Amino acid sequence: MSSTVPWIGQLLGLPLSERAHLLEWLIEGEFRDWLQMDSSEALPRDESFSTLGVTSLGTVEMRERLEAALGRRIDTAVFYNKPTIRHLASHLRADVLRDIFAERSLTQAEQAKSSTTAAGGAERSDDTAVPRQVVEDLVASFYED
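Below the sequence we write its predicted structure tokens.
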């Protein structure tokens, strides 16, 4: 499954269990870029946008950037009602990208793998985090011209 919208294609290219982590990384990357931060600077995902220095105009600009990256409309009020990267990502998963994060969005290959694992009784380790380098490479490729 592919998409002409950059983030949707990247998210769909990952197993469902890894999509939430990537979405937070992508959102964080947008905020880092807008705030002109480099990767060595800490950007807490639980700090409010105003504490991070995002103004009202910045909120509108971030909404526009995220809408372009996702190809979906995001209500500006979300930035005030869900004023952290982590809360915003949660809202996007639950409301804006519900189809991407729903179980039914699993590809046939993922479904087959999931049912094979369940049938065999094998337990998957809780190692579902996307390696940092993979995420950084995906984010870097998104910004390449």
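The longest helix spans residues 16-35.
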